[in-house]
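=== RUN LOG ===
request id: a7f3
mode: sequence -> structure
chains: 1
length: 719
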Amino acid sequence: MKVDELPVDERIKRIIMGRGIEELYPPQAEALKTGVLKGRNLVLAIPTASGKTLVSEIVMVSRLLEEGGKAVYLVPLKALAEEKYREFREWESLGIRVAATTGDYDSTDEWLGKYDIIVATAEKFDSLLRHGPGWVGDIKVVVADEVHLIGSYDRGATLEMILSHLLGRAQILALSATVGNAEELAEWLDADLVVSDWRPVELRKGVFHLGTLFWEDGRVDRYPENWESLAVDAVKRGKQALVFVNTRRSAEKEAISLSSKVSRLLTKPEKRALGELASGIEDNPTTEKLKKALKGGVAFHHAGLGRAERTLIEDAFRGGLIKVITATPTLAVGVNTPAFRVIIRDTKRYSGFGWTDIPVLEIQQMMGRAGRPKYDKFGEAIIVARTEEPKKLVEKYIHGKPEKLFSMLANEQAFRSQVLALITNFGVENFRGLVSFLERTFYAHQRGDTASLEYKARGIVQFLVENEFIDVDLNDRFIALPFGKRTSQLYIDPLTAKKFRDAFPRLEENPNPFGIFQLIASTPDMATLTARRREMEDYLDLAYEFEDDLYSGIPYYEESSFQPFLGEVKTAKVLLDWINEVPDARICEAHNVDPGDLYRILELADWLMYSMIELYRLFSPKKEVLRFLTDLHLRLRHGVREELLELVRLPNIGRKRARALYNAGFRTVEEIARAKPAELLKVEGIGVKVLEGIYGHLNIGRELGKAEKRRKTLEDFFK
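=== RESULT ===
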């Protein structure tokens, strides 16, 4: 189908053709010939790079131009939200306003009412629904990108509940590259279904075993025995490769190993540019290895890297400067980084129950990254047979179908939170009403009945009543109590809220950072660090050192809670080091923590600390304890000692600038207000713009002198 034949507003066609797209891909045309442009729901299961996003853009914008209202685009990752936000902003030329929202789970975000397309993570949108902002009723279209994540153990229930809430109220588009039971999903959503294997770039699949590459069409190629030769060969051809491995450490080790081989194939300008790229990265034990690999044109990519490093790697790979990335499967989820050749080194990974096969769905997601539209006529996806028979791998992963998606609503932690939300935020009046809602879910559709879910829901309701989240009146109607309503709005597990409330009496007797951090780390909402075997003794000693500050006892060695407890102590110590201004790199080194994990821990602790304070406000708080908690929260947010609290309340003043100001003798806001601009500009990290922000915040109408203005001009010049 030609773009100019589309039955949509001429302005939409103009923008699409402005991207150089004259004709739609066959699956795009098939999707748009269904009833989707007339408001029908659609499940679109087509390969990566086949144009799912464009279909959703056409549907969203067409509906908004015709009827007004709002469209919501749901993604699994913050990075993906930013990527889609940048893409969709092109529609602003038609007067359609685009916004992205990913953080702060305790907000109505009423400001989003001014926007037409809202990009959000599923968790953020779920929290918004619980707050009931006025604009939710204006939603006309919801796009669920990567809808196969409905089968994810930890995230699936959230996505399923969102779609259950909006089913029948808004048009739903469900997008995925790999769904084993797309028909079942389409039945549940009462949606048209388009499934296709068509790709804009042909995909050649094969299995590599000890130097022999068996292609699925029967062809055979020979290489040196080591699988690394496949990555080096891609670079020799002027192409790029993605290598998927099963652990972070493998990704790092293989990147450094490949770097020495790829380095020989780089030009001098490339080596110079890679050196500059590496020199701009902050130092810590993980980035030390990254810099080493980068100098040879290779990078590793995993969740242990900070977001800035991951973005830098993705951009440099897309730009062709990085030739090979070794990655854990996180890179296969949604992030737009295709390569000519994808090499899957591992088809097994270690779980709590030993070594297990990686699901077909995940391997096919990785394979789908092969072949770059506009650059390659074909892409190559190669699985390495290390211990398995090559034929078995061909049958399982190349010819096999992805696994069926199963509802994860029965995951107790997620279900507990969702049942509370239904009662406190969505007006479910009684148990019959609760069951009635559950009958709308994918779980009920798939199982044919809700008996097991009802049984589980009954136990959760009992828990919620016993712990005063809700009550039941004489007519068996639910009553939402303040503790339950606030817990749900804060988007935390009721079990987390119960732990906080139970600890408040002891916390009031002895408010202290270590006890509070260990309490936060013990909740189901915290991604607690693991204490390695060689670290256990040290963290146990630390626990006994702080025993009087803890709000729970130290478990015995034989108890099942012993090892998790030591992980909580490790997490508490990391947070304690952070608020005592230990540099990030030293924290990572001392506790054997990757930077990405440190930032994730800090983000979660910030949210849980805020939630604890909000819940404490419900229980006749003591003023001095509340003040202690709010100060500790500010210290946690900025990573500072107590003496810097006044300074970090100023705009754009974080831990480094605050410490620099303090050490230079500017220890209070009054001292900063009295100081001459020239004196403040001598402090490391304090530039003209930062100083103007401080003066604006303090309502000081101070004029910067000629020297400062000259410095500002120079700063702008050197940007």
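=== NOTES ===
The domain at 202-398 is CATH 3.40.50.300 (Rossmann fold).
The first helix runs from residue 10 to 18.
=== END ===
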